[in-house]
# Entry
Amino acid sequence: MAAGRDTALLMMNLMNAPVPLSPALELALPVDTAVIGVGYFGSLHALCYSRLPGSRLQALIDPDPITQFLAEHLGVPWFPGVAELPSTIRAVSVATPVATHFGLTRSLLQQGLDVLLEKPIAETAAQATELRMVAEANQCILQIGHIERFNPAYTAGRTLLPFARTIRSVRTTRHPPRSSALDVVIDLMIHDLDLILHSLDSSVVELRASGRSCGLTAIDEAEVELTFSNGCRVYLDAHWGRDTEQDARCMVAELENDETWVIDFRRRMTYRKAPGSSTGPLPADDHTLPFPTQGIQEDTLSLQLAAFLDACRNRSLPQVTPAEGNAALKLAHHIRQQILRACP
# Structure
């Protein structure tokens, strides 16, 4: 949960960055918000809440005193413990290590607070199930932070995936994992597992997984093949800490009509590949779906937080439910168990 002076300085440099959301949000009733766990991701949540229409950031919670540096620049109080959370708070982001997710989130829900919980939802499926039940019992919103659901590339391209014969997903980064990371499946590949499960109205009937450790975590490289009951085959590749030219975050879907579409999360665009071409979209007037192929310059985290606050105001189902977070977690655990069983 350490905030880190470099992170706080980075946040200050981004303070004036625009958040191009719908003008309707300007009229939204404000919700008093707080962030619990102000490390790198928590700092980003705090920054977005501080400038998001309809949000009124009221507190940062983290035991690290350096958090006060960011709190002062955002003009909000800092508290070292959750017990000091102001009573006016109605919605919180929890961006703490996954080992704390269950106990902390359960306590917040029991207090009647709405929670956006960073992924993964919990350490175990049983914990995830209990969090869903506690949220329902207390009539609270619990949204899971699978942020790629709000990437404009996925928003545009998700309707393609049910028509795919094959889907190839690559998610890699040159950067080593955070010190709190468990492995590349739980921390990185789970993004794509969630997107695939959300898009395909079908169940997994076969799973093959391989991987290895490079000394960073238990699994630093993973390759997975999933076969779904509708016949679709999904190939996933995830690794981190490897010397590559650039990070990759994309899905390539080969459709039943022989078209090939690319969902490029890094560039936030979806396009149809020219036949016989390994890269590059067709000319803009030659695509076949009713959406532009150009990238959309929107802040994905702000879109996620805006959707969370909208669910809080309307008492509506969150866009990423606890059940969906649990489904991605269960599949990730099946994959990592198969990989770890094969490791010497």
